[in-house]
Fold these 4 entries.
Entry 1:
Amino acid sequence: MRQCFRVLEDQEGMRIDSYVAEVCENLSRSYVQKLLKDGEILVNGKTVKSSVKVCVKDEIEVEIPEAVKPEIVAEDMELSILYEDQDVILVNKPKGMVVHPAPGHLSGTLVNGLMAHCQDQLSGINGSLRPGIVHRIDKDTTGLLIVCKNDVSHNVIAAQLKEHSITRKYLAIVHGVIKEEQGTIDAPIGRHPTERKKMSINEKNGRHAITHYRVLERFQKYTYIECQLETGRTHQIRVHMASIHHPLLGDMVYGPQKCPYSLEGQTLHAAVFGFVHPRTGEYLELTAPLPEYFQTLLQKLRQ
């Protein structure tokens, strides 16, 4: 499948891999770099390297190879499916589950379970290791994730993600007591300059990112909040809340290294996911209940 783009003024100076990953949000940066290496991305008709920077009115062509049948072992597992039809599935992902296979996590992932549940009925746009996957949530984040069963629905949902029209609300507990009732964090997020596994606020090379938050409940040392994403960058809520000195409770990557409670990673739950259905055109919104560990923690904080 070939896609063509023309570089706009506000995109001038971006590295070609960053540019393609932005305009094709359903493609990961690593996959874009593979396409560059394989000569599948052209700038004004010529193959280029990932270090090349785009200019205004450059014509970019991206050739996405036909999907290869996934070489993934289907695994029967109990999935918490909140909604399913012929086009999409909405899954309530548990804590500790990786979304798709990767080095070190080749089994036990959500994709392994989906392969058994759906067999061959998953979109192939995002490559052989991520069939059906349009977006991700972190391993230790719980909650709603949409999965597409065909390429048509995948493209429609990916377009909604790109234009930020999907409703995504998260529930979180953060360190410190937030004084204001609500707020907005508008700060670009990019790869950390020295710690490559982390993200950070990056004014120079970061991607546009906006998080809206509002206070639900205050405790002695913590605050229970709802975050609504306007964009969907890697670790967005975790990085944004840490940037205003309210890191997520249990997040030892962006917050304190010690946690007074027995937690496995950050207290973050993808509670609401709303979208326009790719076939019916109707708006559909689902809510995933708080996991038991989260409810128990709230009860402790209220005592």
Note: The helical segments are 16-23, 29-37, 110-118, 151-162, 236-243, 292-302.
Entry 2:
Amino acid sequence: MAISRYLEYALCRRDALSEPERAVLRDIPVHPASYLDGEVIIRQGAAPEQSCLLVKGMATREHRFEDRARITSALHIPGDFVDLHAFLLTEIDHDVVAQGDCNVEFVDRAVLEQISRKNPHLIRLLWLNTLIDAKLHRVWIATRARLSAPEQVGHLMCELHARLSVVGLVEDNTFAFPIDQRKLAGILGYSTVHMNRVVQKLRARYLLEWTRGRIRLPDPDGLAALSGFDPEYLELTPTHR
């Protein structure tokens, strides 16, 4: 089974891929698996012998602290290698948890090692995804510290809109969002009541439409202006890497 096309979309948005490099991507052997909402895809602990590409749904990176509530530090979408960084690590310090039903593809570490030896440009682009993931994490920290609740929610929605557009999963400014208000409140550290008030404020300004499992941004530019969203950190300008 060939690797998901979403990875190719994400890489091509950042740099040109040659036909041989596309062929290498498409020929990567994968081990598909499915997970239900709330199931752990990658468990904290020893780094696995495979890397995991998210193909369908969303997943969160979650940190466990004994009896305390989990802390979420990332939200993954299709096309993300959710644990590629573990390729060079011995331990993973977080779980990756399915949000909604998820499909993933596991790639053996030996395959990635072979690509790194024979296809240096391609492996640089794969590592670029990991560096972008780190930038997302830093922006996540900054927005939590500096933005008001409506601005923070708006920033997240603008970010998801931009990231999902890269892999062709936005239509009419609408995308699937398998996370309800209660879960998003927990992810962002708000109460459910406060999250509901934030959503109502954004709806009243015609900046957000949220129906069951779907998000629509009626005015993406207006929401970006409200939340101070600048997509530069997503590295969406194609350039030779």
Note: The first helix runs from residue 5 to 14.
Entry 3:
Amino acid sequence: MKKRFLALALAAMTAFSMAACGSSASSETSSDAAADTSTDASASTDTASSDTSTDASASSSGRTLDEIKADGKIIMVTNAEFEPFEYKDGDDIVGIDVDIAKAIADELGVELEISDIAFASCIPALQAGKADFIAAGMSITEERKKNVDFTDNYFNASQAIIVPVDSDIASRTDLNGKTVGVQTGTTGDSYCTNEDGSSDISVGEVKRYEKAVDAAQDVISGRIDAEVIDNFVADKLVEKNPDKIKKLDEALTEEQYAMALPKGSELTAKFNEILKSLQDSGKLDEIESKYLSAE
């Protein structure tokens, strides 16, 4: 699949300039990471727990730009287990989403602070006011739109299938009746669980993992038959284990990544303005080239 950024929405927006100053990114591990993300599908009845929240603060529109500037920092929540979009390099959290978030923070003139938690906890954390935005390789879905506001999309993605190199699974329909691993709360989780009846396959058992790499290890060990995960993450996993796993050519879905903000947030328009500027200047292409190998 061609690895490229989609053009951001070209709708005209009122432009105004802001003085940019250098910012540094700090990372911290949130206690929210302790949220239960069981590796067994039977341990959870919510196939997309990152999409819903019962927190009373869900209606909050989040902090204003003035409040963020007064604080001197903007807080991003993510799950740093999603290479090349966000992952750990030593003690640092790096990746495509991190670099984009840093560019946004620089434009706003504030420091970027990163909170690393379970993916399924990202939307509840945003709704609870523990972060200002989500950047986590998050696909735009109608269900998530009920709980967050998305920026313009900035990346084209898809769901891929990883299997052992000697597997007889050759297409999506071969997943019927198989045991498939997914990352909890992702679109791959929703697709394989198929509670809304939109999927055209019937997986035998879905096993959920907090980390995509753990599911890949279970594919390698033979504990599960396949893993469904985002295409670029699948490429990285196969790249590290080329003699053990492979990615099927067939994609399950076509998706678009965007950043998520609280419903009604005044920051959404500003994020879109900055993202468009980064796209027009070629900065987004530079970030893509930094983390993605050319075909």
Note: The mean pLDDT is 83.
Entry 4:
Amino acid sequence: MSIFKKKAEKIPDGCIPVIRCSICTGEQVAGFKNKTTGKIDEVMLIQDDLDLLKFRQRYGIKDKIEKVY
């Protein structure tokens, strides 16, 4: 147990959080999509709800996350 709380990492400037989903395999990867270029930087693999919760907590995301296919 730690006395100090970890601060949430910052979402990169000009980016929105997204989950890229594969139609064929069902694989999901969380990352950030650049609003201007549309490029997605992958951060972590999402295998279950716990992974998604960890991603949300790590970056302090409270809003709905867009899914990109």
Note: The chain has a mean pLDDT of 92.
